[in-house]
Specification:
Largest sheet: 14 strands, antiparallel
CATH architecture of the largest domain: Beta Barrel
Number of helices: 1
Number of strands: 25
Distance between the termini: 36 Å
CATH topology of the largest domain: Porin
CATH class of the largest domain: Mainly Beta
Order of helices and strands: HEEEEEEEEEEEEEEEEEEEEEEEEE
Number of domains: 2
């Protein structure tokens, strides 16, 4: 009966299972260190006072199942900010004279997009990336004449082979990707052309969120409302998540189930909190304290239900409650679980 009820209610949130997820990685600015160097049509470009900078922002990684911790992926950084602004000059060959020109790039932001790539058993990958300047103002002040200002937005770098690693540590994923890329520009007034090369390492990480309760619970014959919790970890590798429901009637059949989406559908004496491709686990009997507990064994999942880091599933427990009257069954609240490496 419960399987039919859940299947009918789940029609409110149907969605297919997927093998991949888009995960938001945060750039570690302190570790994402770069140097820049440049050449121009009238001489070398040197930093003033430094040619060091860092990157800040975020990276979105599309990751696929398999591998250690993933089998394949693709990444996109849509808004990387260069910190601090870049400043340099073209030294005068006559050492005691002022520089031939001053160059400053303020508010430089760029995107980097990769091709799809595979990840080997050690977490290594290699891909092709393209850098696109999304904003940045170039100011060129020559030794003679006035300063000119150029908007660099839309400037493209050449396709570049870019290696990297994706590794897991506890509930986190980290991407480390050494990068060498460049872009070119021409000052329209002075006709000074330049090539700016960027060399450094992009470091970004994703931290898996803890399980979170949601939806609502309803009074039953044993308590003001049964609740669900996750014990152990959400690690796919560890596979040690244990589902627990408390506040239920004692010695009654029940079962845990999970689905893709959050829901809030009145059903029986309670609320169905999970919908969309519902999967049920084995039938249990609550103990004398009104508790259900069972491991969520990922090794027993059907191939089409296999999990990858970043997958989110919504769990709930259904239980018989004839003593409460009405429909004779009820639910816990819902538990949203994001699975980690």
């Amino acid at each position: 009966m419960i399987q039919r009820l859940l299947a009918a209610a789940a029609l409110t949130g149907l969605a297919p299972f997927t093998f991949g997820q888009s995960l938001p990685f945060v750039v570690d600015q302190a570790q994402s260190n770069y140097t820049w160097s440049g050449t121009t049509s009238i001489g070398a470009l040197v930093g003033d006072p430094s040619n060091q900078f860092q990157l800040a922002g975020s990276v979105t990684l599309d990751l696929d199942a398999g591998g250690s911790p993933v089998g394949a992926g693709q990444w996109l950084a849509t808004d990387l900010l260069v910190v601090p602004d870049l400043a340099g000059n073209i030294p005068n060959p006559i050492s005691f004279l002022p520089p031939l020109a001053l160059l400053d790039v303020a508010g430089l932001r760029f995107s980097i997009a990769s091709d799809p790539f595979t990840v080997d058993a050690a977490g290594n990958f290699s891909t092709t990336t393209v850098l696109t300047v999304t904003s940045g103002i170039l100011t060129v002040t020559p030794l003679t004449g006035g300063a000119t200002v150029t908007d660099l937005a839309g400037t493209l770098g050449p396709p570049t082979i870019t290696p990297g690693t994706i590794t897991a540590s506890g509930a986190s994923l980290q991407m480390v990707s050494p990068m060498v890329t460049q872009f070119q520009f021409v000052d329209p007034t002075s006709n000074i052309s330049a090539t700016l090369s960027l060399n450094g390492t992009l470091v970004a990480s994703y931290d898996c969120p803890a399980p979170a309760s949601y939806c609502t619970t309803s009074p039953n014959s044993a308590s003001a409302g049964a609740t669900i919790a996750g014990l152990g970890s959400t690690s796919i590798t560890a596979n040690d998540l244990v589902l627990q429901a408390v506040g239920c009637p004692a010695n009654k059949p029940g079962l845990f189930f999970y689905a893709l989406n959050e829901a809030s559908v009145p059903l029986g004496n309670g609320t169905l909190c999970a919908g969309g491709q519902v999967r049920r686990l084995s039938v249990l009997v609550s103990n004398a304290s009104g508790e259900y507990q069972t491991p969520f064994d990922q090794a027993s999942l059907a191939p089409g239900d296999a999990l990858v880091p970043g997958d989110v599933r919504r769990f709930q427990c259904w239980f018989r409650d004839s003593a409460a009257g009405g429909a004779g069954f009820n639910f816990t609240d819902g538990l949203s679980v994001t699975f980690c490496p």
